Each structure stands twice: as C-alpha cells, then as structure tokens.
Amino acid sequence: MKFCPYAQRVHLVLDAKNIPYHVAYINLTEKPDWFEKVSALTKVPALEIPGHGENLIESLIIADYLDEKYHQNSLHSKDPLQKARDRILVERFESFISPFYRIIFQRNQGGAPGAITELTSALDLYEKELRERKTKFFGGSKPGMLDYMIWPWCERSDSLKFILGDKYELDKVRFSELIKWKEEMQKDKAVKENYISPEDHFKYASLRLAGTPDYDFLAVIPLKKSRLS
C-alpha cells in the first residue's frame, strides 16, 4: 500500500540494493480474494518469491531476507554485536511511532496529551547515537538497515506541521545531528524514489481519519519487471 510505512521499509531495501521487483498495490479496505494466498495475515508488506512457492510477511523479516539473499550493497553491519545494537534501536523507535500516531489519528478526540513531549524525548536516544558514532548515517558513510527502517516515520513527521503548527519543530541545538541526518537521507537515491510529500501524507491521514481512505490519489509508479530468483 503506497502510504504504508512498513511497506515503504521494504521498497527502500529493494531500491537501495537495486533488486528488480514487481509491485502490486493493495486496497486494504477491499482486499482482493487472492491476497490471503500471498499474505497469511492479509496485511502489507508481503513478498512473493517466484519459483520457490514461498511468501514472506512482516517488514523486518523481509528486509533481513533481502539483505542476506542479495549481497550487493549490504545494509546490515558485518559485526554481529553492532547488528544487534542496531536492531535494538529499530525496536526502540516504537517510542516515537506510538505518540506520532496518537497525534495523527486522535486529533479529533481531544488530541493526544503528552504526545509531543514523548515524541521529541524519543529522539534524544538517536541524536546521542549519531553523536557517538560520528558518522553521517547510522550505517556509516551511507545509509544502513537502521537508517532505512526508521526513515518512513521521519519522512511522515514533516506532516505534523499541518496539525501542530510551530508546536512541533526540532530544536536545532538539541537535535543538530538528526537534522543533518534527515537532510542527507533526503538526498539518498532509494529515499527519493519512494518519497511522498508532507502535504500528501497529511491528505492521506486525514482521509483515513474521516473513514474514507483513498489509496490511489497519487499516480501509481510504473511496475518494475521482476527478475527475483
């Protein structure tokens, strides 16, 4: 689904590793009958592997599979301990995701008290991590798995300005490294290929909140020829 951040994770990995693929977008309100054969839980993302009769679900599982199966441009650290540390940071990003969605989808029920503070506090850990690593990206000189796995919500965070105005703006001193990281991520090829503007993220979220989600108001990107094996 074009606006699903978990599906975007997989698109980022596929494009970062230059893996050809075919994409089928799913209307999650009216799911096609055949979708259950591809996704046992009937949710996205789901990866169908041609020639193997196998399907994978869950964004982190799919991302790991792709990185191990296709060795070009490895995204995980070769150091097992660092790889584990990065996965912990991916899991801990839920402390940002949860208040983010409360702001987005509870704004018509009196807002989300404390969510802005939770959101910004969650980012302190990632600012500290970048400062300690002294690298442009969490992955070093180029984006790695951690960068791509948290990016979808960082991209969507710019849409908060349409809800909160100037109440949500990253402090340029407190989050100096994260701000630079975000600017560098926006220059990345895979990120640019999957980028959706803050205006369109806000439009989709507003339609969903109103109970009338429109999955197709953006032009669908051309299908990419599949050569997976």
TrEMBL record:
Keyword Ligase among record annotations: no
Molecular function GO terms recorded: glutathione dehydrogenase (ascorbate) activity; glutathione transferase activity
GO terms, biological process: glutathione metabolic process
UniProt keyword Oxidoreductase present: yes
The EC number(s) this enzyme carries: 2.5.1.18
GST C-terminal domain span: 79-217
GO cellular component terms attached to this protein's record: cytoplasm
Domain GST N-terminal as annotated: residue spans: 1-74
Keywords: Oxidoreductase, Transferase
Enzyme class: transferase
Pfam name, any one: GST_C_2
Record SUPFAM superfamilies: GST C-terminal domain-like, Thioredoxin-like
Annotated family: Belongs to the GST superfamily. Omega family.
PANTHER family assigned to the protein according to its UniProt record, in alphabetical order: GLUTATHIONE S-TRANSFERASE OMEGA (PTHR43968:SF6), PTHR43968
The protein, known as: Glutathione S-transferase
Gene name as annotated: GSTo1
